[in-house]
C-alpha cells in the first residue's frame, strides 16, 4: 500500500510540473484552434 501511495505522489508531482510547463503552450494551442474554427471557411 505504501508503494502505491508513493507512486501516486510521484505521478501527482510530475503532472503538476508538466501542467505548469505546458500551460502557455495550451493557451497558444487554444487560440490557434479558435482561429481555425473562425476562419475555416477561408482555407
How would you sum up this structure, described in words?
The chain is an all-alpha fold and 43 residues long. The chain is 84% helix and 0% strand. The chain contains two helices and no strands. The protein is rod-shaped and about 55 Å long.
> How helical, in percent, are the residues?
over 70%
Largest sheet: none
Total strand segments: 0
Nearest-angstrom radius of gyration? 18 Å
Instruction: State mean pLDDT (0 to 100 scale).
Output: 83
Identify low-pLDDT runs: none
Shape: rod-shaped
| Structural class based on helices, strands and sheet pairing | mainly alpha
Distance between the termini: 54 Å
Query: What is the overall number of helices?
Result: 2
Percentage of residues in strands: under 5%
SSE pattern: HH
What keyword list fits this structure?
single chain, 43 residues, mainly alpha, 2 helices, 0% strand
